[in-house]
Amino acid sequence: MSKIFTAAALDHYSVPELRTLFRQAQLDLVASEAETPERRDALASMENISRAIAKRTASTPTI
Q: Which of 7, 14, 50, 53 has the greatest number of CB atoms lying within 10 Å of its CB?
């Protein structure tokens, strides 16, 4: 992957697409060497994607 997905960029993806991106970031993490920019980017992307999924799947309070 070698690119960080930002919150703004992730706004355009559906939950299934986000899950696919998360899986790809996981694979990139596994393939990366410790303490490399690729590993840092994969971790950052996973965190951002995880937040985007949580934001979309969070239950909204009812009044």
A: 53
